[in-house]
Amino acid sequence: MQLFHGSIFEFPLDLFSGGVLSAVAPPNLMAFALYAGLALTVGVVLIVASELIGPRRKDPEKQTVYECGVPLFDSAREPFTIKFYLVAILFILFDIETVFLIPYAVIYKELGMVGLMEMGVFLLVLGGGLVYCWRRGALEWD
To answer: Which string of b and e fits 12-32 if b means at least 16 CB within 10 Å?
Structure first.
C-alpha cells in the first residue's frame, strides 16, 4: 500500500476509494471532516430557520434602493476612485500579515531565536511598507 507523506499527515492513498472517509482515516482528518460537517450543518440550519421564522411583511418602501437613507442622485455605474482600490489592497496586505503571525504565535518556542529573527525581519518589511504608504499619502482620505 502506498503512503502519502505530507508535512502533517501520513495516510494511505486509497483512503477515499469508496467516496467516503474510511475507518482507517487518521484522527486529524476525521476531526477536520467532523468540523466541516458541523459548520455546514449550522450554516444550513440558520438559513432555513431565518427563512421560516423571519418577518414576511412586504413593504414598497422597504424594497426601494437607498444609500445611507439618502435618495440616489447619480448612477451606480460610475467608476470608483483609485483610493477605494488602494485601501482594499492595503487591507488585504495587512490582513495576510495576521495570517502569518498566528502560526508563529502557536509554535514560537520550537522556532527559538532563529524564528524570532525571521519574524522580526518579516515585521520590519511590513512596517517599512506601512511607513512608505503613510508618507506617500495612501492612508489619507481627502
So the answer is: eeeeeeeeeeeeebeeeeeee
Helix (H) or strand (E) holding 115: helix 108-136
Q: What fold characterizes domain 79-142?
A: Methane Monooxygenase Hydroxylase; Chain G, domain 1 (1.20.58)
Q: d(Cα 94, Cα 76) in Å, to the nearest integer? A: 29
* CA gap 85, 91 in Å, rounded: 10
Give the global pTM: 0.43
- State the number of CA atoms in the 13 A half-sphere of 23 facing the CB: 0
Q: Where are the domains of the chain?
A: 1-54, 79-142
**Residues β-bridged to residue 10:** 5
Residue 118, C-alpha cell as written in the block:
525571521
Return the amino acid letter for 57: R
Instruction: Give bridge partners of residue 12 from the DSSP assignment.
Output: 3
Confidence of residue 80 (pLDDT cuts 50, 70, 90): confident
3-state secondary structure of 6: coil
Q: Give the position of cell 506601512.
A: 130
